[in-house]
Design a protein that fits this description.
This protein has three helices and no strands. The protein is an all-alpha fold and about 110 residues long. Helix 1 (about 5-25) packs antiparallel against helix 2 (about 30-50) and helix 1 runs parallel beside helix 3. It is rod-shaped and about 75 Å long.
Length: about 110
């Protein structure tokens, strides 16, 4: 891969990062994983050809890292929401069992 192709790969990785941010916000974990794997391959292939990094390439990498951090935040938020929902479901089921047990004794 030459420098021009490596820069194109970085630009595609940035595009994928923007897509990932939207998809992570919507909660599609499987598509997020698939796109992340594709982005990783692009970044690894570009890394070999971009030594030393130019200013534009550094900016793209900085944008990719920022978008990645935000996407991770969205995924972690979804995970906490799901865990909270599951906890509330457990509490609700426990309450139903308790009310059902007390209702039979009367």
């Amino acid at each position: 891969m030459n420098g021009r192709e490596a820069t194109a790969a970085l630009q595609r990785a940035a595009e994928i990062s923007r897509e990932l941010l939207e998809i992570a916000d919507k909660g599609d974990v499987r598509l997020t994983q698939r796109l992340d794997a594709e982005r990783l391959q692009l970044l690894q292939s570009a890394r070999r050809s971009l030594q030393p990094l130019g200013v534009a390439d550094r900016e793209l990498l900085r944008e990719i890292a920022e978008l990645n951090d935000r996407a991770i935040g969205f995924v972690e938020h979804r995970l906490r929401c799901t865990a909270r929902d599951m906890d509330m479901l457990r509490v609700g089921k426990s309450a139903v069992r308790a009310y059902a047990a007390n209702g039979r004794d009367r």
